[in-house]
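Sharing in case it's useful to others searching the archive later.

Someone asked me privately for the predicted structure of Aberrant root formation protein 4 isoform B, so I'm posting the question and my answer publicly. Question first, with the sequence:
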Amino acid sequence: MSVESETGSFRDSETRNNLRRILESCSKLAEAGDFHESENTAVSELVEFLDSLLDAAMSDLDSENAENDAFEAISEIHRYICSPSIDQTLGYSSKIIKAASYIVPPLSGLSKVLLSIQRRQFEQVKVAVPIILNILKAVSLESEEAELEDVFDTAVEIANSIYEVCNKLERDTKEKLRALLGLYVMQCMALVSASISYKASSCPSSVLQLSQISSYCGLSYLSLVTTYDVEIVAESVFGGEDKDHCTGCFSHVKHGAALSVVWGHVSKEVAQTAKEDLIAIRDELRNNQTKRWQAIGTLKHVLYFVNLPWELKKHAIDFLLSITDEGVSRNYNEERSEWSSYVPSLFSALQAVKMVIMYAPEPELRKKSFTVLKGVLADIPNSQRFDIMKALITNTDSSSMIAIFIDLVRKEMHTAICSSRSIVKDAPQIDNKAFPDTSFWNPGILELVELVLRPPQGGPPSLPEQSDAVLSALNLYRFVLMTESAEKTNITGVLSRNNLLKAYNEWLLPLRTLVTGIMAESHSDYDEFAVDTVCTLNPLELVLYRCIELVDEKLKQST
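And my answer, the predicted structure tokens:
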């Protein structure tokens, strides 16, 4: 009998009619708000119904009809609960808080059904897993924590059932099912982490169990944060089938991979369960720059995960700090061709750390995140670091963060001077280059200053809103101007007459006009905002006038 005819016979059968009757009963009781009666009668009846299908399949292992009925029943439940025509759509219901308790019985029944499958096990599980994960995602990200403990216990039951099925298979089919189980476990790890409150004294039991199963799947911590590629793994499991569908149900696998390692960092018990040595892993990442780049690119998913508790993000920052602080092995060989392939990932990671600096609720976490930011920047080859920092400034709206990045640029330039002086002390100047390392000492510095003092949209910057960024840009310009004058160099072009005139007429004088007007207006007012404005602009005004004096002096010398 064909699969189509088997499916058709189920849909026309009394078995399906009984199932629909039970589901309708659950829905009506839920709509009436009688959740207690629904759980005691209709849900219990549904569990008994699924048990009867399982018993029928187990009693006659050669019966394809019995096995097909069991699987079609699960599919029918999924179709029903996801129908937009009823109020209890699991993915979108306004009563989603109660949906969690309703999916436990069918999912628990499914974990038993999976164990009873005797033929084409991999194909059957491959069909079921995306359905299960979509349901778990819809419920877990919308429900209250109290509703979810049983849901995740059931999700672990399903993982254990898939594990048992794996043990029955051989060779390629076994490896493909193991890969699918790994995807399932990582997705569940992310959902558990985002849905259950973190407690410093313990971790959820489901995390321990998922960690144990991930070890069976061959997913070591090192591979999860370095070489684990979700797209490649999914392709090996599903081939070219409905890639968009697969991408949706595995949308948080990368987050789960990173969180598996973070949980190991949080809890020794988790690491021991996963058979991992965190000290050895940290040492490997500290000593291998390429693997460290890969790990940074993976761990950024934890920082970007909006639903995740700040406590777990704090532990992710701690782990990043342990692999990027001073003392790690750094190779600044500019010929390393693989660097370019990691640029997008590292830039995205820096953006994620930046967001933690801006929005973390605790000063200590913001401070650690800033240290991580500097550590990741230090990992970037010298020739590329300035471009990365300029891109960070260009892609930042916060005046305070722009100021921080510009100050980091100025410190990099100061470090280059100090290093060059210690290396080539007493050496003669050659070709107008006082510093061997010109990665930051280049004309791009003036473009960076102009970006703040004369924004692309035209006119002077908005004050006092952009005062932090403007003050930092003025300090950078003053530093470059004074340093180039003292060293008798012009590497950045800051001392050329055209650039001096441009800075004087297009940056400094318009800014002076703006500041003078705002200060005069504020002095005439006596409200709190006016006082704050004066206090904010006072240091900016001092640096601005000093810059004007310096430029004016250099212009007179050049005539």
